[in-house]
Amino acid sequence: MLNLFSPGDGRRFDRREMLKIGGLTVGGVGLPQLLAAQAQGASPRRGDGFGRAKNCIILYLSGGNPQHDMYDPKPDTPAEIRGEFSTIATSTPTVRFGEHCRQSAKIMDRLALVRSMYHDHSDHARGSYQMFTGTEYAGSVPDANSMSRQDMPHLGSVVAKLAPGQGPMFPFVLVPHRMDVAGGRRVGQFAGMLGSKFDPMLTAGNPNDDDFRLRHLPLQPNEQPAAFRRRLGLLEQLNGQTEYLQEQPAAQSLTQAQTKALEVISSKQVRQAVDLASIDPAQREFYGRNLFGQSVLLGRRLLEAGSRLVQCNWQRTQGINGFAWDTHWNNFSALKDDLIPPFDQAFYALITDLEKTGQLDETLVVQAAEFGRSPKVTLKNGGREHWPQVYTVAFAGAGICGGQVYGASDKQGAFPAESPVTPADFVATIYHFLGIDPKQETHDQLNRPFQLSKGSPIPLEVV
């Protein structure tokens, strides 16, 4: 049995303190790795951009946002397909959006749309698994609600292992929560076979609270020294007393995870980033005083604190309907009143904020979901159903030329008409811009090799 004592006073650490410390053993550490060389030149090129992104933020609209009513409208189709919304011009003359995407329309000249995403899974969990890992889930729909250490890792966990950056913040963070339903833990949101060392940090809480800060990180400077000494003492004992466990993968990650926890809680940069209560109220209003808007603001600040990949998840608890973007009924009223306005504001705020500070060139911004919605409206309840056969994602920043559209859906927005793109390609694209070769192999916690992605980076135009 392993006994833990503070070296200064001989006192045994109690269970409460162990849980507090253990709660910080999330994320991964490793030797800092250099980013790939920046792409050179000023002329647009397709298929370039390797290593252009210092970090990445993903805005994930769980439930599946409708392509017809947002970024791929079909105004010349019958009413049961085009829906209730008209279209508006964007900052790119050849591209039109659904009428309620007013803020996004202003930044289309900074966006690259991919209108030909597709896959074969029409359920949320397995669709998200593909988008997060680039790999099809082999199990059943019920299986997909129970994560396993045999699962493929989320791309953020791979980044945490292969290119964690210089910190000090955890390299991979989910804001504010996972996307779980009915008590399950959906697959694809963890490090899976890479082991717990590379699991994401979860910020938890509600970033829209007036006094939001990460409660499990000490933010009061006068409380730090003693806490640091005690945790460092614990770490030293763990280093000296776990030799007999070194053959176990879980034990091998313990020292590194605790080291990272100490690095995080000792960082003034981290404390400032996660303390939304102390920032200018006008900046909070700019992103939108709602759960998603403040999640995006927090995600953007976590990038500044050293995270390499932050995923901001739309939660079912936001809004009056409680179904996120899963609009099986009341699609149009939910989009108009509850869904598009807060997303649209936060997306616009993020792009313009990063551009204003000069950080957009080194930040890959991604908007995605597990699938789109059906071309044909369900007339009896005004809903659109799950539709993985074709949907749209958006990229911006990291040298990507704005105003471009890659791929196309057919006349009804039902299937890809040209340049189809898979989730494996989507994941490979993010790896590529972060300076990670998607074709390379790495090893799981049992030292078994696997390839990061079987897809190819989307050949977007870059400067």
From TrEMBL:
Domain of life: Bacteria
PROSITE patterns the UniProt entry points to: TAT
Full protein name: DUF1501 domain-containing protein
